[in-house]
Specification:
heterotrimer; A: 334 residues; mainly alpha; two-stranded antiparallel sheet; globular; C: 291 residues; 2 strands; 74% helix
Chain lengths: 334, 257, 291
């Protein structure tokens, strides 16, 4: 079996064919953005589409840890929460602009990730997951108990949510801003993935032990990945703010991370834009089903279990398997 | 003993697990450039000694210096980047990737560029890429893997996988390579191929092998240390060592059990 | 001084309760090598099981053993459908995600079936307090501690002196070796899982009269359980018991002398500290997955 397929795709980036392929993808993506942004007329759907882009950013950050490093970042919601709280606090408590708050949030997230990762990334597996969960738990209790962050009720009633001249309270603007940011981050992550750093992470994910014995400083590379994922999660938190119009301690809850994990698992951890596909399914489908909140949790939890049991590689794996099956069928017919 | 300087010196090494003494005051000197074997019946402590020599395990007492470094005290990746290569029995390769990607992963410590260099396609990046192309072609040729370049590592036959493991350490330019039971599980052809490979790579390098396969040891090693019951019984050429009365007794005794 | 002794007594009793949950988690980890993130959900199931039996007219003390059976049955069904097929020997993060999702599913199902509000569970010990050397102990609390001690002692005896018990110990120490000795490893794993979650369920039904049954009651306890198990040394049963005492005491002292509203954060902080500084635990054996 020759399996050059997606494995070889990772090595791309040095060949001219690779650059052309990527260029085509970007053009397609831009086209899709324009199509959706100009085609949708309902404010609800435009806002939802924008929120989906924000959530997809969060899912991407979760996948940096899950699919990239190989750890379950139950506490990633902490950075999402920081990204939501920072602009909220800046606007409500200090009267400073939204953009400033977003940047502050990203910086705080990166700093927090450096400190936290410095100690927790020496752990792996369930140990890391528990500590990660614990961090977000402590963060949640903290913002719950402090007046500065609005206590249990959180912060709401924001005066102006805008990026420069782009007012995010206008649905179409909101969508264009978030989708373009999402596209830019995707391009950045694509570059990183096929870079020396990305390869190091992949080697660590496949075998920490072996990577280390070949000279890879496992701890340092994992820390870099973690510190990369945090501001992306924070950015996601900020961009979701115009949709939710409120930030509460629940924004930091481990349940947010689990939502993102589901999105990542549906789409497939191995594919760069898998989390994006999963996020779309995760946010759009429930709109048509109109479930009770708890039914939604029940269905999604069972779905996670099902996916992990049957197709841990998500849609990506299913599609590859379907493709292989089709090939087998056509070959046996000859 | 040999007149060449010692690349590995282990002095008075002891290892205790709970109340059990796995190693009892072992001294080992490995001359630079030699092919050195560590043999002994099961439970003799050779695997433990091997792990200590590589720096994977810390000795309870005694010191180990490889290339002048105290390998137990340094982190694994530092040891590797300073010229100590190891192959393991179980995690020998990156099974989800192709042979070429495997080598790319292994070239991490030999390359210098970062993301910016790459995006700007700077000189540093180009130098790294050229160096990799050359080196990987060399390594693939030496290990007989050139035609497998784009194959998935997990799809390779076992013997080929073990050669890939060697190829991976070669990418880090090691001065000394530790091999953990390299021909275990191989058939005759694979073993012969592997021995030939060992001969090729031993030129200008020191090789340390822990093995059960006496044919391989006999064919490759300049010197072996026989370990029995946590002690180094004899150090000599394979031919002489296996004739040593205590060694014979130990092996026959082991077979009786 | 009185307050001090009272705090110690509270701590010991808390510890006895934690020990049940922790030992269950340890047995599961020891033989299945998974951290059961769904453990708290089974704790809640225990409480709800005894509640439902009470609603059918059974007395609390009579209901407890049946409720334990009920939880064990659910545990067995979960084991054969999900756990067995998906978790064993799956090195990566599968078990974390699956057990976590399982916990969420159980909690959501509980909310849908029983409602989100806390429901009281009656117990014959009611509100009575026993007076011992001038210190007051809630009768229910004493019952919890006594039951816990008896059950754990019986379990320890069973592990050491019965064939099945020794098989469990064998599998947890050396699964391959156990397989070669002819031990039915899948059976032992099922048994361990069932015993582990049944212990959690028992703890839940013992504590229910004190804290009422509510869907997320397992969350706070599972954090403590993690701390206890990791502190005691993941996989060591005696370590879990010792850890339970330590955590029980520290929780009691924190509540008495420091603050109550930050107590939930204390649980997390303790887990984090223990994982960072004592990953091998007080009596730890293996350092699996630490590095």
């Amino acid at each position: 079996m020759t399996s050059t397929s997606s494995q070889a795709l990772k090595l791309q980036g040095t060949g001219r064919a690779g650059s052309l392929g990527k260029g085509v993808l970007i053009v397609l993506a831009a086209g899709l953005i324009l199509f959706v942004g100009l085609g949708l007329q309902s404010t609800f759907w435009l806002n939802l589409a924008a929120y989906t882009c924000g959530f997809a950013l969060f899912a991407l950050s979760v996948n940096i840890m899950l699919g990239g490093v190989g750890e379950v970042p139950l506490g990633q919601s902490m950075f999402f929460g920081i990204g939501a709280y920072a602009p909220a606090v800046m606007i409500n408590n200090f009267g400073l602009p939204f953009e400033f708050g977003v940047l502050v949030g990203m910086v705080i997230a990166a700093a927090a990730a450096t400190l936290i990762g410095g100690v927790t990334l020496r752990l792996t597996g369930a140990y890391f997951a528990i500590v990660s969960w614990g961090m977000s738990g402590v963060a949640m209790v903290t913002v719950h108990n402090i007046e500065f962050t609005g206590g249990a009720l959180g912060l709401f009633g924001f005066s102006r949510l805008a990026v420069g001249p782009f007012d995010l309270s206008h649905p179409r603007t909101y969508f264009f801003v978030t989708s373009i940011i999402l596209l830019l981050v995707l391009i950045l992550l694509a570059h990183i993935r096929s870079s020396r750093f990305g390869h190091a992470l992949e080697s660590i994910r496949q075998s920490r032990h072996l990577a280390q014995s070949l000279g890879v400083n496992v701890f340092r590379e994992r820390l870099k990945a973690f510190v990369l994922s945090a501001p992306i999660a924070a950015l996601a938190g900020s961009l979701c703010l115009p949709f939710t119009q409120i930030v509460t301690p629940e924004s930091m809850s481990v349940l947010r991370s689990v939502d993102a994990l589901l999105a990542v698992l549906i789409g497939g951890t191995g594919l760069l834009y898998g989390p994006v596909i999963g996020s779309i399914i995760f946010t759009v489908v429930p709109q048509f089903l109109n479930f009770d909140a708890n039914v939604k949790v029940l269905v999604f939890s069972l779905l996670i279990i099902l996916i992990m049991m049957v197709a841990p590689g998500g849609l990506h794996q299913l599609i590859k398997a379907a493709g292989a099956a089709l090939r087998c069928m056509s070959e046996s017919r000859r | 003993m040999s007149a060449l300087p010692n690349i590995v010196t282990a002095t008075a090494v002891e290892k205790h697990y709970g109340g059990v003494a796995a190693l009892k005051r072992v001294d080992i000197r490995i001359p630079e450039g030699s092919v050195y074997g560590l043999i002994g019946p099961n439970g003799a402590g050779k695997s433990t000694m091997f792990d200590i020599l590589c720096g994977i395990t810390k000795p309870t007492a005694g010191t180990v210096k490889v290339l002048g470094m105290d390998v137990a005290a340094l982190p694994a990746h530092t040891v590797a980047s300073k010229g100590v290569g190891r192959t393991f029995q179980r995690t020998a390769m990156f099974s989800e990737s192709t042979v070429e990607e495997n080598l790319l992963f292994a070239s991490f410590s030999a390359t210098r560029h970062n993301l910016f260099h790459r995006i700007l396609r700077s000189r540093v990046w180009r130098a790294d890429m050229d160096a990799f192309r050359e080196k990987s072609a060399d390594v693939l040729a030496i290990c007989g893997l050139s035609e497998h370049r784009h194959q998935l590592a997990s799809a390779l036959p076992y013997g080929t996988q073990r050669r890939l493991a060697v190829a991976l350490t070669l990418m880090t330019d090691p001065k000394i390579i530790f091999l953990d039971e390299p021909v275990a599980g191989m058939n005759e052809t694979e073993t012969a191929d592997f021995i030939a490979l060992m001969r090729r790579i031993s030129v200008g390098r020191t090789i340390v092998i822990v093995e059960h396969d006496m044919a391989a040891i006999g064919a490759l090693c300049d010197e072996v240390t026989v370990m029995v019951d946590g002690r180094a019984i004899v150090t000599d050429t394979p031919h002489n060592a296996l004739k040593h009365p205590e060694v014979v007794r130990a092996y026959l005794g082991a077979e009786d059990e | 001084m009185d307050l001090f002794v009272q705090t110690i007594i509270n701590g010991l009793i808390l510890g006895a309760g934690y020990a049940l949950v922790a030992v269950g988690l340890t047995v599961i980890f020891g033989t299945l090598h998974i951290v059961n993130f769904a453990h708290g959900a089974f704790f809640a199931l225990g409480a709800y099981a005894v509640l439902m039996l009470q609603n059918l007219g059974l007395n609390y003390l009579v209901a407890v053993p049946f409720a334990v059976l009920a939880v064990a049955t659910v545990g067995y069904l979960v084991e054969i459908t999900i756990v067995r097929r998906a978790l064993y020997d799956r090195g990566e993060y599968g078990s974390i995600i699956i057990t976590f999702a399982l916990a969420q599913a159980i909690v959501a199902a509980t909310i849908l079936i029983m409602g989100p509000d806390p429901l009281p569970v009656r117990s014959p010990f009611g509100q009575t307090a026993i007076s011992l050397f001038g210190f007051f102990l809630s009768a229910q609390r004493v019952f919890i501690a006594a039951t816990s001690v008896v059950v754990l002692a019986a379990f320890a005896w069973w592990l050491k002196y019965t064939v099945r018990g020794q098989q469990i110990l064998a599998v947890s120490q050396n699964p391959k070796g156990a397989l070669y000795s002819g031990i039915n490893v899948p059976l032992i794993r099922s048994l361990s899982f069932v015993l582990g979650v049944a212990a959690a369920g028992l703890a839940g039904m013992l504590l229910a009269p004190l804290i009422s049954a509510f869907p997320t009651m397992g969350d706070a306890n599972v954090i403590v359980a993690f701390t206890v198990v990791i502190l005691g040394g993941l996989g060591s049963i005696s370590g879990a018991m010792l850890g339970a005492l330590v955590i029980g005491l520290s929780n009691a002292f924190f509540e008495t002398y420091v603050s109550v509203s930050w107590t939930s954060a204390l649980g997390w902080v303790l887990v984090i500290l223990v994982l960072l500084f004592w990953p091998q635990g007080l009596m730890g054996r293996t350092q699996i997955n630490r590095h």
